[in-house]
Design a protein that fits this description.
- With 210 residues, this protein is an alpha+beta fold.
- It has 2 domains: 43-170, Jelly Rolls; 177-206, no CATH class.
- The chain contains 4 helices and 10 strands; from the N terminus they run H-E-E-E-E-E-E-E-E-E-E-H-H-H.
- The chain has helices at 4-20, 174-179, 185-192, 196-206; strands spanning 68-73, 87-93, 98-103, 109-115, 118-123, 129-134, 139-142, 147-152, 158-164, 172-173.
- Strands 1-2-9-4-7 form a 5-stranded antiparallel sheet, with no helix packed on it. The protein has a 5-stranded antiparallel sheet with strand order 6-5-8-3-10.
- Helix 3 (185-192) packs across helix 4 (196-206).
- The longest helix is centred in the N-terminal third of the chain and has 17 residues, at 4-20.
- It is globular and about 60 Å long.
């Protein structure tokens, strides 16, 4: 009897743990995304295609003001990463291209350069600056929520792949946050110490009003 009871208790524990395991939560993109991600698709509707993303093989369109393109494979594009705490993206930088100061409030970032040269860096919350030119094969990490940037530091195209510690890391580009909206120019001037002409010029370039 003394041996039977512990075995019975252990079997209950193992069966309860096994029943509680959920292998994945493929995002149901037909439902809205919440702070915890997307709700799960019913297992019967999950296919292998939910766990495969083929969109990072082609270069992004760098014909824009920053001469750069980011192709994301976040939960909104790649539902298989929903709830797994990971995602990836492709970064293309044409000559002279730049990803301006920006943050990912939802996750840390790891960048690996696979072509060309990229100058990358970030600023800590204590305003310490960490930046360095990176070449093919170099990796750099950007802690969650900190302002960081990437600039093409060579004469030809540059290519990098980035991974995130979140299936939906979010993105806020500082320049657009300041000058690409309808925040009144007088408030931007007071908070940035820029004069009216500079603010109006930047709003005109980045599509802001006010």
């Amino acid at each position: 009897m003394k041996m039977i009871l512990p075995i019975f208790v252990l079997s209950l524990l193992f069966s309860s743990s096994y029943a509680a395991v959920q292998d994945f939560c493929v995002g149901d993109l037909s439902a809205p995304e919440g702070p915890a991600g997307y709700s799960c698709k019913k297992p019967a509707k999950v296919t292998v295609d939910d766990f495969v993303f083929s969109g990072l093989g082609a270069a992004g369109n760098t014909s824009n003001i920053i001469k750069a393109a980011v192709t994301p494979a976040f939960s909104a594009q790649f539902p298989g990463v929903n709830g797994l705490g990971v995602s990836v993206a492709r970064l293309d930088l044409a000559p002279g291209g730049v990803v301006p100061m920006h943050t990912h409030p939802g996750g840390s970032e790891v960048l690996i350069v696979v072509q060309g040269s990229i100058c990358a860096g970030f600023i800590s919350s204590a305003n310490a600056v960490y930046f360095k030119p990176l070449k093919k094969g170099d990796i750099m990490v950007f802690p969650q929520g900190l302002l960081h940037f990437q600039i093409n530091a060579g004469g030809g195209p540059a290519l990098a792949f980035v991974s995130f510690s979140s299936p939906s890391p979010g993105l806020q580009i500082l320049d657009y946050a300041l000058f690409g909206n309808n925040l009144p120019s007088e408030l931007v001037e007071k908070t940035t110490f820029l004069d009216d002409a500079q603010v109006k010029k930047l709003k005109g370039v980045l599509g802001g009003t006010g």
